[in-house]
Amino acid sequence: MFAVYADAPSPDDPIAALRVGERPEPEVPDGWVAVRMRAASLNMHDVWTLRGVGIKAEQFPMILGCDGAGVLGDGTEVVLHSVIGDPQWAGDETLDPRRTVLTEKYQGSFADLVVVPARNVLPKPAGLSFAEAACMGTAWLTAYRMLFVKSGLRPGQTMLIQGASGGVATALIALGRATGLRVWVTGRTEEKRALAEQLGAHATFESGARLPERVDAVFETVGKATWAHSMRALKPGGIIVISGATSGPDPGADLQRLFFLQLRVVGSTMGTRDELADLLRFCDVTGIRPAIGAELPMTETETALRQMLDGDTAGKIVLTR
Ligand SMILES: NC(=O)c1ccc[n+]([C@@H]2O[C@H](COP(=O)([O-])OP(=O)(O)OC[C@H]3O[C@@H](n4cnc5c(N)ncnc54)[C@H](OP(=O)(O)O)[C@@H]3O)[C@@H](O)[C@H]2O)c1
After folding, report:
1. DSSP symbol at 1
2. Distance from the CA of 168 to the center of ligand 1, in angstroms?
3. How do residues 40-85 score in pLDDT, each as one tens digit?
């Protein structure tokens, strides 16, 4: 079958590991289903896979793609939930020590077919296109959990999002705006800040800029480049929710500020099946939709990857089949 995959880890030049070609049709174990892919979205996770981060060397070749939407054999249109854990695990799947995300152990979704446990597909709401639904399983689910499960924010409070144009950042802007939060965003260029305002940000700022007042919560996926600003931006008792560190993982902790102002730092990763179901319903009832900056066929994954690596994003990059 057609597939976009990483041949072997390439830490310094991720695109050198990219292959667009053929892989064997997958077997479908009992209790699993095959999904014929219609769309999947590109995530930083795919860059980490090409670099060999978070994946063991013996797992290669690995088909890329950790979310998506497609069709089951009986015609049911579905959205993938890509957190696959121990079938015996009860409770929050993201806390299962054996859980992996598609592309870490099991083959990913940039292909004709992906095979997942039956519980890892959810019905696609009719109002969401395949491309929109493809954005839900990783970036949007991560944003949903950061905001609604981890932050503890109430409508009327102020959230600061570090980064304007990325997949998780644009999801946070839309979710925060739809929930009645005051949404502040930092962006690296005027164009990216304009995009954030168009998506619903109440105010935007240059990266690192002094804010008019301190905020209740900061949403981090950037890491080293923005961390010191995130710490300074918080009110006493405020919270940073972090799900990524694109610019580097070792920011310097500013421990004195952390304890003296009683700040909290909380990690967040992906989300549960139930949270994905709630997110899909949230989009359905509010009418909010992901910002899709680029839509390309899967055969053009290299172009899409270059856009992401260059920071040339305006929301999600979706790959179609
Ligand atoms: N834990 C999880 O479950 C999970 C899930 C999804 C993503 N993540 C992680 O979250 C991060 C973002 O993922 P994504 O898919 O949203 O990536 P993306 O679409 O490429 O977005 C990157 C974002 O980071 C910002 N950024 C990057 N480098 C920066 C720098 N040096 N200074 C300031 N801002 C910078 C960009 O801001 P501008 O708009 O200003 O350019 C943009 O908003 C990645 O590290 C990814 O691995 C984790």
Report:
1. -
2. 7
3. 999 999 999 999 998 999 999 999 999 999 999 999 999 999 999 9
Closest C-alpha residue for ligand 1 atom 13: 44
pTM for this predicted structure: 0.97
Ligand 1, atom 37: closest residue by C-alpha: 163
What's the burial of 126, exposed, middle or buried (CB within 10 Å: 0-12/13-18/19+)? exposed
Task: Compute the residue count for the chain.
Answer: 321
Q: What Å distances lie between residue 254 and 106, 161, 229, 234, 244, CA to CA? A: 38, 20, 11, 13, 18
Give the residue among 111, 110, 112, 140 at the shortest CA–CA distance from 125.
Answer: 140
Pocket of ligand 1 contains residue 266 by CB under 6 Å: no
Phi, psi of 22 (to 5 degrees): -120, 140
99 alpha carbon to ligand 1 midpoint, in Å?
23
pLDDT tens-digit series, residues 22-46? 999 999 999 999 999 999 999 999 9
49-318-3 Cα angle (round to 5): 55
Nearest to 35, CA basis, from 100, 4, 81: 81
Domain architecture of the chain: domains with CATH = 2-135+290-320 (3.90.180.10), 139-267 (3.40.50.720)
Whether the Cβ atoms of residue 155 and residue 179 lie closer than 8 Å to each other: yes
Q: Is residue 156 lining ligand 1, measured as CB closer than 6 Å?
A: no
